[in-house]
Amino acid sequence: MAPDDWEGWLRLMATDGVGAATARRLLAAFGPPDAIFAQSLRALADAVGEGIARRLHGTPADWDALRARTRDWLCAPDCHLIALGDAAYPAALLATPDPPVLLHARGDPTALNAPRTLAIVGSRNPTAQGAENARAFAQALAAEGVCIASGLAAGIDAAAHEGALAAGGLTVAVVGTGLDRVYPARHRTLAQRIAASGCLLSEYLLGTPPLAPHFPRRNRLIAGLAQGTLVVEASLGSGSLITAELATQMGREVFAIPGSIHSPQSRGCHALIRQGAKLVETVAHIHEELTGLWGAHASATRPAADPAATGAADPADDGDAVLAALGYEPTAFDVLQARCGWDTAALQAHLLMLELDGRVQRLPGGLLQRVVRA
Question: Domain named Smf/DprA SLOG: which ranges (predicted)?
């Protein structure tokens, strides 16, 4: 975008009633924003109706403040506005049904056009094993040069970003607020790390708060940036299933990691698998589906974090009888006690040791689950 062009794009998208679809209609009819604003009221009304036409002939609410805020934001060298048609605009989004007209990006915008991108999404309240799986898959793929896209949300999203950063790889966070805000606030440091080595992305104007309807809409950008979407853990009502559905509608691959039939956090993934999503246990399963799009670029050497190795990471439970009795599904204390035959005090003490070691997690409802580290 030329230095003097951004105000017209910003004014267009700040006009009340002008969303992405309306803006694209105006651009198709009249050309760039300056040409739109030069049109007569009649011409604009014929294209988008009289109400929006009159608002286009005025100035948006709080326009001076938004323009000043955006100008100050753009003074930072890592802050960018990317309009539809710019060379830096993500090519993958152009192939989606509803591409945004104006994007705010912080960090390296070339990450938005990475040749290989996988979205990793899932529950905001994952099990410890789910978070570990997200981190391990992201780290293994990022180490191979795959960009990891997610939404900066708590839980699986954050674990995926962390895994990519741990590998020194690329990650893109698509958010549902203005880029001058971080939601959740506790991810401020994570957002800064992503901006330093990847990219934060939003279609929302600066100052936009975290409104509930924004997050399902941002999910279409997460799915659209990637050639595939991996759902790690999701309940049946999870927003991650929206991302998976959008990916399917866009003709992108959908992957899901299975879990316990007793875990609510696995039911969304199991539903996706029944609907045709690829069941994933290792990174190789993702490559099997995406090699045609990605090419044979994967590293010949698997990094240590590759979850393909996790099946062999604990082959004999290190001789621990309680872990062997616990297995891999959420288990009630009394069931575990019946399996291993230990008295209550000894079993509670041993479970506490395993919890402190990060090998067992207590779930809601008094259930216990082992955690396998990659």
Answer: 81-290
